[in-house]
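Protocol step 6 of 9: fold each sequence in the batch and record its C-alpha cells directly after the sequence line. For illustration, a two-sequence batch is reproduced in full.

Sequence one:
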Amino acid sequence: MSTIPTFRDDIFTDEVLLNPHESYRTLRELGPVVWLEAHQAYAVARYAEAHVVLADANTFCSGQGVALNDAFNAVGAGRSLIMTDGELHDHLRDVIGWGLTPRALRPTRETIEQLADDLVTQLVDRRSFDAVADLARALPLIVVPDLLGWPAGGREHLLEWAAATFDMLGPWNERAIAAQPKVQAMMEFTVEAAASGNVVPGSLGAAVIEAARRGELQPEQVPPLLVAYIAPSLDTTISAIGSAVWLLATHPDQWAALKSDPSLIQNAFNETVRIESPIRAFSRVTTQPTNIGGCELEAGVRLIVLYGSANRDDRHFEEPETFDVTRRNAAEHVGFGYGVHRCAGQGLARLEGQAVLQALVDKVDTVELVGQPVRNVNNLISAWATLPVTVTPV
C-alpha cells in the first residue's frame, strides 16, 4: 500500500490555468494518486490511473456530481446527463445521443464539409484573420445551434453561457461565483424554451421535447438535457479547432507533413486533442473502498481526473510534449473522456474539426502567427481567446 502524497498549491489560479503543465508534471511525479490540499480532493494525473477511473463508472460514480464544488453538484447531481449513472444515464443519453452517433451524423457530413470549405475560402481571400473569432467559433456557431435546435432568439448569449457553465464546474473560486448569474440566465431561458416548445423543428432538441410529451422524460429533465449537449458541443470544438491552427502555425514541419499526406488529418485532430486537451478535468466519487495504483481510497471520496495531464504522461505517450501528426497512438487520448461518460458530442466535434483541417490543407499553402495569441482563462476549458494568423493561398 502506497502513502498518498500531498500537493498544496491551487492548480486553478490564473497563472496555472494559462500554463498548467509544470504543475501537471509535478503531480505525475508525486504518484498515481495525490491529495490536493487546496481543493480537498484527490487527483489522478497519470494516464493509466485516469483510464481506470473513467472505465469503471460503478466504482467511480458521476451521480454525486462531477463538478469540483459542492454548490454546483447539489444542483446538477441526478439531473444533468454528465451527473447521472446507470440506467438513468443510459436512458437520458439514448433520448438524444442517437442523433450524434457517426451513423446518424453521416447525412450532415457533406453540409459541414461545405460550410467549412466556404468559410476557409472567404478567410483565405482576406489573408489575415483571427483563427478563433473568424474560424474556430464561426463554424460551430453555424452548425451546433441548428442541429441541437437552440432557439434563434437566444443564440447571441451561447458562448458566454457555455463558458460560464464550465467555470461553475470547476472549484468554487471567483470565476465560478461570477459565472452564477449567467448560468442561471441560461437555465431560465432553457426552461422557457422547453415549456413553450420554442426549438428548431426536426432538431435533436425537438426530439427531447417530444420524448417528454410521450412520457419518456420528466419535464424537469428536459432543460438540463438540452444544456448538457449545447455547451460541450460548442466549447470543446472551438478549443480543438483553435488549438489545431495554433499548433500547425507554430510547427511548420507538421503542417508540411499534413500537406504532403492529407490522410493524416484524422490523426492530426486526435493529436491536437491529446496535447491541448479541451477539458482540463472532471471529478468522480468512489462508491466503495478501492485501490488505484497501490493507493487505498475510502468510499465517498472525491477524485479529480486531470485529462490534460494524463494526455501528456510519458508512461503512455512517447515524447508527450512533442506535437506529432504521425503519432501512432494519438487516438488513445482521453481528451473526450472514456467509458460510458465519454463525450457524446465528440463525433460532431471530429466532423467539424476534420472538415476545417481538410479545407485548410486544400486551400492554404502557409499559415503563420502575425501577433501575440491570447489564451482564455476558464476553470475547465482550455482554449485560445484570440489567434491572429496570416495565410497564403495555394
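Sequence two, same batch, same settings:
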Amino acid sequence: MRDDENVSALIGDIYDAALDPSLWVGVLAKCAQYVRGPAAALFAKDALSKTGHVAYSSGIATLYKQLYFEKYIKLDPLTVGQFFAKVGEPVSVGDIIPHDEFRETRAYQEWGRPQGLVDALNVVLDKAETSAAMFSVWRHERDGLVDDEMRRRMRLIVPHVRRAVLIGNVIDLKTAEAMSFADSLDGLSAGMFLVDDGARIVHANASGHGMLAANDFLRAAGGRLVAGDGQTDQALREIFAAAGSGDAAVGVRGIAVPLRSRDGERYVAHVMPLTSGARRRAGTNYAAVAALFVHKAALDTPSPPEVIAKTFGLTPSELRVLLGIVEVGGVSETATALGIAETTVKTHLHHLFVKTGTSRQADLVKLVAGFSNPLVGPMR
C-alpha cells in the first residue's frame, strides 16, 4: 500500500512538471529513488552527429555532464543502441551490448566507473530520423546490474514521464499557473480542449475551436468532443473516463492517440489528467478532468542506420563498428574511436562481412552510401 501511495504521488509530480519545468530536477531525483538508482536525466541525442544535450538531470555532477557530451557520447555504445530501442520500452546496457564488452569501453572506464555507475536503464520517449528524446536512470555498482524489479518500477512511471515530456514540448511554457490555466494556453498553435469524464467540452482554445469548425477529424456533438474515427473516439472516451479516477489510472492510454483528417493529414493527441497536484485547481475551476492537446504529427521516417540494421540483421555492436568503419576507416582507428579492443572490432567486422555478403571494408562503405548519401556526408 505504501508503494502504491508513493508511485501515485510521484506520478502527480511528473504531470505538474509538464506545466512547470522548474520542477523537473526534483521530480527526477524522486524518479531515481523510486526506480532504485542514484541519478536520472532527461536528455536528447543525435546518433549520427553524436551530439546531444541534457534538459534536466539529478545526481550527475556538472563536470561529468559536460564531459559526456563533449567527449564520451561519441564512445558510448548506447548512442547507437537507440536505433534498436522501441519507444517507451526500458533498455539496459546488457540489452544493447554484452557487459564484458561494455567494460572495455572508454565510456565505462573513464566516465561510468569513476562515478561508480555500472549500468543504466534507458527509455526512448520520442524519436526523429536520427535523434531521440531519452529518459535514463543509472545503476550504482553497489546495487549491481539492472534487475527485474528495477524494470518493473521503470515501466510504472515511464508512460507518465513520456506523456508529460510530450505535452511539455507542445505547450512550451515556463510556467502555467493553475488559476489561469486555460487562459495561458489559449495562444497555443496546438488545439487544446478541457473535458469532463463524459467527454463534454468545458473549454477550448482558438486552435481547438478552429478544428471543431472544420468538422473533420474532431467535432462537437451535443457539447461532447467526438473523433471522426469510431475506434479513436472510443479510445478517447475511455481515457477521459479513466482520468476522472486520478493520474495513475490513465496509464499507457492516450500517450499519443493518432488522428487523421479527410485529406490524409496526420495529427496526434495527448491527454493530461487534471485531478491532482497543481493541476487539480485548474480542473476544479473548469469542471474538467483532463486536457487534450492536438497537433500535427511529424513524419515517422526510419533512420538509414535503423534500416541497414534491420535489412542485414545487425546487432547494436555490429552496427556501431560498421558506422565506425565508415567514419574513421581502419580497424585500429575504429577501435580507438569506439574505445574497445582491436580484437573486438575484428570479431564484429568478420560478422559484418558474413551478414552483408562483402569482403572488404571499402565494400561496407559503399553499402552504407547506397542506403543514404546523407549518412556518409558528414562522416567524410
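Proceed to step 7 once all outputs are recorded. Observation for sequence two: The first strand starts at residue 40 and ends at 46.
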